[in-house]
Amino acid sequence: xxxxxxxxxxxxxxxxxxxxxxxxxxxxxxxxxxxxxxxxxxxxxxxxxxxxxxxxxxxxxxxxxxxxxxxxxxxxxxxxxxxxxxxxxxxxxxxxxxxxxxxxxxxxxxxxxxxxxxxxxxxxxxxxxxxxxxxxxxxxxxxxxxxxxxxxxxxxxxxxxxxxxxxxxxxxxxxxxxxxxxxxxxxxxxxxxxxxxxxxxxx
Length: 203
Fold this sequence. Notes:
The chain is an alpha/beta fold and 203 residues long. It has one domain: Rossmann fold (3-Layer(aba) Sandwich), CATH 3.40.50. The protein has helices at 5-25, 31-43, 143-151; strands at 50-53, 75-79, 90-93, 98-100, 106-108, 120-125, 129-131, 136-137, 157-161, 166-167, 181-184, 187-190. The protein has a 7-stranded mixed β-sheet, sandwiched between helices. Strands 8-7-10 form a 3-stranded mixed β-sheet. The mean pLDDT is 84.
């Protein structure tokens, strides 16, 4: 449900607290299961372009096994701008030289070759939670919101990597961009999810 920006922000703060508690109390996701499902989905796609992956933070589905499947690529990844340089993520080939971000994950160096937006075909998107309509609850910084908005008119496929955390409904604001698909365990499914789809928790 789309709310005013102030009420949506307050509701998202509450939802983030609940989502973080869920992640802390849940076992690690089965990374290989997700990567296998994503590999099959990507290998069968018809739209061309780069596949943008993320470097996992603690608790997120680790996509490194997917990178060993070249038939599912080519793969690229994002770079978070240095503090003070705005919120625009840039995209670079996944084999570009890397450096460690202050939050601990690896990312391309600032002068790595760029992948232009119009060459991107698929974005694999992390989050604290998703809902059945494909809405996403991020960490609150807005990097992915701005990134996905940039790509919205390029025909990109947005795949939310759930890690098993899908709820019935999340608070949304007017700048939120929903996913076109969700990776739910051993499947990648289009949204909105069929009511008969049972969300499998982590095992």
